[in-house]
Hints:
Its cofactor is Zn(2+). Belongs to the creatininase superfamily. This is Creatininase family protein. It holds the Pfam family Creatininase. InterPro entries: Creatininase-like_sf (IPR024087), Creatininase/forma_Hydrolase (IPR003785). The structure is a single chain. By secondary structure, the chain is an alpha/beta fold. It contains six helices and five strands; from the N terminus they run βαβαβαβαβαα. It has helices at about 10-15, 40-55, 90-105, 120-135, 165-175, 230-250; strands at about 5, 20-25, 65, 110-115, 135-140. The chain has a five-stranded parallel beta sheet, with helices on both faces. Strand 2, helix 2 (about 40-55) and strand 3 form a beta-alpha-beta unit. The longest helix has 22 residues, at about 230-250. The protein starts with a strand and ends in an 11-residue tail after the last helix.
Amino acid sequence: MTFTRFIDLSGPDIERFGEDTVAVLPVGAIEQHGPHLPVATDYYMAEAVAEGAARTAGETCDITLLPGLAYTKSDEHAWSAGTLWLSASTLLSVLDDLGRSLAAGPVRRLAFLNAHGGNSALLGVALRELRTRHGLRTFLLHASLPADQGGTSPATEQGLGVHGGLKETAAMLHLHPDLVDMTQARRSVPEHLTQYEHIGFGKSVSFGWTSDDFATGTGVIGDPTGATPELGRKLVDASITAAAAALRECARFLPHRSTTA
């Protein structure tokens, strides 16, 4: 059972992968995260959780870590300088090309480790496209689910912390404290959304939004002010543990029969 970095291997090394080897693709984003965080926040998170989980899962199954994908679907932040994004059709084409390339070799299992909520729906579409077009068994893991997709946010964010808030800021204080400027951190919670019973983050009716819709002025949707490195370490470690457990299942998952003894 092994962990490998795909880009460090030779062609013959890769030819020796087994049918249960899981290729893990970190999927992040380059986009504004307010004045206190770097634009690569999601990319750093995807890389950290994917590598940590792949190394851990590699103790009991075969995992290879692909180079991360930084440029993804971030048009909800397109209004801001620093956001570098691909259209939905372009990103789907990129994912299809990568899947086709992997399937030309021995890889039969591909797991996306996503750290940007704006990618989730599109990655869900890609799972089935890659399954039907290239025969890959495909999986979608999340570094951390945002509040608008079934995740949680702290009471100080009233369930509305979806971007640049407490969790992301804490994670970056742990991973790359030199890139965080807490003197610029401001609470920017769109509290008026709580007046709607059905429409909102995590409610029964979702809505299309861009990060400048909420009149907070910072591009942040959440409250980063209470973030600490200690909280970030706990969050990142928990994400790695959960993702590693999921990767172990990805290595043996077969929908048509039991894999238990």
